[in-house]
Specification:
There is one protein chain. Helix content is 55%, strand content 7%. It contains 18 helices and seven strands. It has a four-stranded antiparallel β-sheet with strand order 4-6-5-7. A three-stranded antiparallel β-sheet has the order 1-2-3. The longest helix is centred in the N-terminal third of the chain and has 36 residues.
């Protein structure tokens, strides 16, 4: 810079007030810094809100542009619908936490308010689509809404859930969606945990584990979903298998209390008459000499034959000379049961079944019912595990 340039700059500074000039530039700098800080703060707030809610609204890819779409939430297991995720979170709460929340709610509502009833597990089944409604009920949503994972804790519904899992593992696991697969293995995990907790039904649970291993092996090349999800199922199955293998049944301590074998034979006979599975009868007879004698009685096996098989089926193997009550007492009913079982199979029995309401087309448990707005004399259709699976195209 030359002498002339320095003189011009010096004259320019003399022509103005230096404090006013510095104050003006400092004010501009402060405003710019405030704008930058405000932008950074907004970005951080948006990031925190996204991490807290962690949900977005995905568009509905269909012909009906009026559909608002669903909200999805990202969990450790993948993306799930927000409304289904909320139900899953509340149903998986600890019993102590739920009890404490109920006590707090009752304390706030006052002493004259009635106790809030638990939500009845049910789901409205859509038979088809309409112009206004394009959504169909999926199997994953039905498993969640009907509380299949919680049903294994009820001794009346556990047999139904085990049969449902058996049907899925026989050839339908690879055709399920990723969400449905996760629900199925979640139900299987709940079944194993309940068996370990109650020390019951180890035989059916081990059979389910074996069927699940075969299903994973058969569908490893043709399954729906990612390989990472399929490997997670394999790892969970290994964990459940190790949990059953490490469990040791605790023997009852000698506490001088009465045992089952100490009961009179009439009481034991009435107890065994209530058992519908012949395998349970045979296993019970192997525990004590008194139970073995009762389990070999002809009247017990005659009762099983009359319960599982029709008269025409029994006539296939009954001797031709049987024509009176006296000759019926001399029949080897255990042998007749074995022949009928090999030919016709055993009748499936369930203490509790699913049903479909004829008025509102909702699926629910018969023992729990459902909130229907129809008349009291409405009819229902009973659903076996096979009928329930047929409702969903797989």
């Amino acid at each position: 810079m030359g002498t002339r340039d320095v003189r011009l700059v010096t004259n320019g500074i003399k022509g103005c007030d230096l404090p006013v000039l510095l104050d003006r530039h400092l004010h501009v700098w402060i405003n710019s810094a405030q704008i930058v800080l405000s932008f950074v703060f907004c970005v951080r707030v948006c990031a925190v809100c996204f991490l807290c809610t962690n949900c977005i609204t995905m568009p509905f890819l269909g012909q009906d542009w009026r559909s608002p779409g669903d909200q999805w939430v990202r969990t450790s297991e993948g993306w799930e619908r927000l409304r289904l995720w909320r139900i899953k979170v509340f149903e998986n709460l600890n019993e102590n936490v739920v009890a404490r929340l109920i006590r707090m709610a009752l304390a706030d509502s006052g002493p004259h308010r009635q106790t809030m009833e638990r939500r009845q597990p049910h789901i409205f089944y859509n038979k088809g689509t309409t112009k206004e409604r394009k959504e169909l009920v999926s199997l994953s949503e039905a498993l969640l809404r009907l509380d299949m994972a919680g049903a294994v804790k009820d001794i009346r519904r556990a047999n139904f859930v085990c049969k449902l899992l058996q049907l899925i593992f026989e050839g339908k696991l690879a055709n399920l969606s990723g969400t449905a697969q996760k629900h199925v293995f979640h139900i299987l995990e709940a079944t194993v945990n309940e068996a370990v907790r109650t020390e019951m039904n180890f035989g059916p649970v081990k059979k389910l584990i074996i069927q699940a291993e075969q299903a994973l092996e058969n569908g490893k090349d043709s399954h729906i979903g990612s390989n990472c999800l399929w490997n997670q199922h394999i790892q969970m199955l290994i964990k459940l298998s190790n949990k059953l293998a490490d469990y040791q049944l605790k023997e009852r301590e000698k506490d001088s209390r009465i045992l089952l074998s100490d009961l009179p034979q009439d009481c034991l006979r009435q107890i065994l008459f209530q058992i519908a599975d012949h395998r349970d009868v045979i296993h019970t007879g192997q525990t004590a000499q008194t139970l073995h004698i009762v389990s070999q009685e002809s009247s017990l096996w005659r009762n099983l034959c009359l319960f599982h098989f029709s008269g025409r089926q029994l006539l296939t193997f009954l001797p031709k000379h049987v024509d009176s009550a006296e000759t019926l007492d001399n029949v080897d009913w255990k042998y007749i049961y074995k022949r009928c079982y090999k030919r016709f199979g055993r009748k499936e029995t369930y203490a509790d079944l699913l049903a479909m309401c004829s008025h509102c087309c909702s699926i629910y448990w018969q023992s729990l019912g459902h909130p229907c707005v129809g008349e009291s004399n409405k009819s229902e259709k009973v659903l076996t595990p096979e009928d329930f699976i047929r409702l969903f195209p797989l």
